[in-house]
Amino acid sequence: MKRTLPITSLAAIALALAGSHPANAQESAAPASAGLPVGTCINMGNSLEPPQEGEWGGSNISQADFARIKAAGFDTVRIPVRWHNKSMNTPPYTVDPEWMARVVEVVDWALEADLNVILNSHHFDPIYDDPGAVSVWHGAVWTQIATRFADRREDKLWFELENEPHNNLDHSNLLETLAPALAAVRASNPTRPVIYGGENWSGIDSLATLPLPDDANVYPTFHYYDPFEFTHQGASWTAPNIPPPGRKFGNVADRQQLAGAVEKVRAYIARTGKVPFMGETGAYDLHVSTAERAEYHRAVTQAFAPTGIGICMWAYTNTYPFYDHKSGVWLAGMRDAIGLAEPGQVTTSSSAAVSEGDGPGQRPKGQRLPQGLESFEAQLPGWLLNDPTSLAWESYGPDLTSKAVLDETIPGGGAATRFQNTKAAEPWSAAANIPLIADVEKGRRVVIGFWARAVGSSAEIGNAAIGVRFQQNADPYPGFGDRMLSVGPEWTFYEVSATADRTIKRKTAIVALQLGGQEQTVEIGQAIVLVGASSISP
Fold first, then answer.
1. Cβ proximity of 277 and 311 under 8 Å
2. In Å, what is the CA distance from 350 to each residue of 107, 261, 286, 339, 536?
3. CB burial class (10 A; 0-12, 13-18, 19+) of residue 375?
4. Is the dihedral of CA 136, 137, 139, 144 positive or negative?
């Protein structure tokens, strides 16, 4: 499509971005209340929730752990705690004083590090088998927890009454079972945030029917480990149906499943007006490499980012780890995958992660900035790598056709290209290539943002699928940052960012928008490609 927008249309792009985030906005049936400010969160897994602290290959928590977590950029820690084997199972259900003192020590260390804390009951095993008989014991334990922490700041410490209800604890008896615990908390902490998760291990589908008590300070949560065959391959605790090793993540079905999960969160917010958070997500490291785990976290983080929900990673150290407590180092790429700076990166005032060498006064090599774009680039968190006024993109594919669409209601500049792919094949079999105007240098952060909407699709959920790849447009076509986006029917600004694992020279540097994965018609409008930023939207 040979279409060049006037420079003045860039003002429309800037204005549109200033008032939006890369999201697929929907009108809510109920006004959304603010969720808990969980932000970027990590679980202190395999520490206080095994039968004894540090079992299952974990390590004892130290004060230095929280200083390290805070310095890494996390906002919140979730501290799972096993209580049932540290308390009497008959009246007065006393919690072991030494255990209570240890939990208090750990929580206070986290608070002193200026982290938010989610303190929960984790693996209170008897309640899953006989909820009615155990609820009083469970509530009595929460009486002691709540009383002990009643003087801690309500805006920093939050209680989660029970992790992952399952077996006989389900939505039919959840409110009744947890009623003694909630009453116990409210007796000493009348307005402290309290968290409820749903049945079937709090999976994403539990949100659809999650019952909540009539309490303005109760907040919903869910966990995300899909596809289970990838995240739990080789996990012995899932016996007898242990997922076999060798499962990879990232095919079209996986991306569509992830997009569907995001829509379930949006639907929940629209229906209830409540914003949930993701209490756990991750992939078991026995058979999955750190690089694969990082890509999974990146996909989940980026997919849910438009919803604005907080996400708690599982876990800090041991099984699903971010930090190797034996060698004393963060695992490479894991923090970057969730938007936190790694060594050699700094954070700009616009919250965009950039690599060493990026910054004011240093343009990408080989850049020839089109005339008139200087003032627009000055408003951005990085350097331009493309001409956002141009939609003169090369497209290819035996079953792909394209045509110009001009309509002043199209966000960003009033123009787009409509691509129709009539036969499903490999995603890369049909694509539109956005040319870049500078070298892509190894180790530097790049991001693309573009407007798009699905017009028609053969997919069950009706969304279009667009693969995004930063690429050398010459044999053997190496690239990086592969993502598969699920694009809905409303005009939405989508973003993909990655750190370059290779240098690609300007003459062959492109961003490939892959369209061949399914039968579909999709419109793609204005695109902006930057170096030195992880996000375009403020």
1. yes
2. 31, 29, 37, 13, 9
3. exposed
4. positive
Same fold, 9-18+362-531 and 40-341: no
The DSSP output letter for 380 is S
pLDDT in tens, 5-58: 444 444 444 444 444 444 333 333 444 456 899 999 999 999 999 999 978 877
Full-model pTM: 0.64
Rounded to whole angstroms, the Cα distance separating 305 from 491 reads 17
Residue pLDDT, tens place only, 281-333: 999 999 999 999 999 999 999 899 888 899 999 999 978 999 998 889 999 99
> What is each CA distance from 430 to 187, 368, 513, in whole angstroms?
62, 29, 9
Phi and psi (nearest 5°) for 380?
-100, 160
Question: 62-67: long-range contacts (C-beta < 8 A, 24 or more apart)?
Answer: 62/109, 63/109, 63/112, 63/113, 65/109, 65/316, 66/109, 66/110, 66/112, 66/113, 66/115, 67/113
Q: Which two tokens stand for residue 9?
A: 């249309």
Q: How many whole angstroms separate alpha carbon 242 and alpha carbon 261?
A: 23
Closest by alpha carbon to 116, among 193, 212, 185? 193
Could you give the CA distance from residue 392 to residue 292 in angstroms, rounded to a whole number?
35
How do the domains of the chain map onto residue ranges? 9-18+362-531, 40-341
278: three-class secondary structure by DSSP? strand
Residue type, 446: V
Tokens of 463: 């969304």
Residue indicated by tokens 């954070």: 347
91: which 2 tokens? Answer: 């009246």
List phi, psi (to 5°) of 355: -85, 165
CA distance 273 to 32: 4
Q: What is the mean pLDDT of each run of 10 residues along the chain (538 residues)?
A: 42 43 38 76 95 85 96 95 98 98 98 97 98 98 98 97 98 98 98 98 98 97 98 95 95 92 93 95 96 96 88 93 92 92 49 33 65 75 87 92 89 88 92 93 89 89 89 90 88 89 91 94 93 76
| Residue 50 token pair | 């095994």
Phi, psi of 408 (to 5 degrees): -65, -15
- Residue 346: enclosing H or E segment and its boundaries? strand 345-347
Query: What SS3 state is found at 291?
Result: helix
Q: Identity (one letter) of the amino acid at 39?
A: G
CATH numeric code, 9-18+362-531: 2.60.120.260
The CA distances from residue 344 to 7, 295, 402, 429, in Å, are 36, 20, 42, 37
Architecture of the domain made up of 40-341: Alpha-Beta Barrel (3.20)
The label of the residue with tokens 């242990």 reads 242
